[in-house]
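Reminder to self: tokens first, then the designed residues, so the page reads top to bottom the way the pipeline ran.
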């Protein structure tokens, strides 16, 4: 059988709604008592209180309890 691949399309409203769920995940440290960014990555919201991100984005925070994880909305 031969299949013809057609271009995918999405409703612009669906794309816009999905984009609102994308967030920046920021690791924050402290230097001289001031917050300083350490690293960052992206994630997406699956509930109002749960973000999915890659392990490499938060591994450093899991190993260093002085670091905090912040979420910056879209």
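Designed residues (74 positions):
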């Amino acid at each position: 059988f031969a299949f013809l691949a057609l271009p995918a399309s999405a409703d612009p409203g669906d794309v816009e709604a999905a984009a609102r769920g994308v967030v920046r995940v920021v690791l924050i440290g402290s230097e001289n008592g001031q917050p300083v960014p350490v690293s960052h990555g992206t994630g997406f919201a699956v509930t109002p209180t749960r973000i999915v991100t890659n392990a490499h984005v938060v591994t450093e925070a899991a190993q260093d309890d002085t670091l905090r994880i912040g979420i910056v909305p879209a």
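The first strand starts at residue 22 and ends at 31.
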